[in-house]
Amino acid sequence: MEIRELTQKQKDFLKNLFEIEELPEDMELDEFLASRGCKLYECLSCGKLVFHDNYEFWNLTDCCDDNSKLVEGGLLCEVCYSRTPENLKHWIFFRPTYYKEVSFLPPEGKNKPTKGQ
Asked: What 3-state DSSP class applies to 14?
């Protein structure tokens, strides 16, 4: 896919992200991204275009950042990954690192049962 085939919104997204004024319209998208140190992926499930800049994923189809996951054979975008059994398993067994067991004991001298009660 050449850059000229992108929508204006996608072109503006790339310009803002890479802080450039013009895009090389005749250049292949994957070549342009590779020249910027990025790797282009296509979601295995829905086909959205997502690229990684060695720091985070960017969803070029929806023009936003993305919490995509690399899986065996390629990549799943954030939406498709959220529907996987692997993600569901993660949320069922997720235990935050800040989670602590707490027991609530009454303060000394207060709320103690008296012998007459």
From this structure: helix
Residue reference for tokens 């390629």: 74
Residue type, 51: F
Is residue 52 classed as helix, strand or coil in its secondary structure?
Answer: strand
Nearest-angstrom CA–CA distance, 86 and 83: 9
The region, left, alpha or beta by phi > 0 then psi within -120 to 50, assigned to residue 19 is left
- Report which of 33, 25, 22, 27 is spatially closest to residue 60, judged by C-alpha positions: 33
Q: Does the model's pTM come out above 0.85?
A: no
Residue type, 111: N
Q: Residue 66: enclosing H or E segment and its boundaries?
A: strand 64-66
What residues contact residue 72 under an 8 Å CB cut-off, 6+ apart?
none
Q: What is the pLDDT of residues 55-73, one digit of tens each?
A: 999 999 999 999 999 999 9
Q: Report CA-CA distances (Å) from 73 to 44, 54, 67, 83.
A: 8, 19, 17, 17
Rounded to an integer, what distance in angstroms lies between the CA atom of residue 112 and that of residue 44? Answer: 62
* Token pair belonging to 72: 């065996």
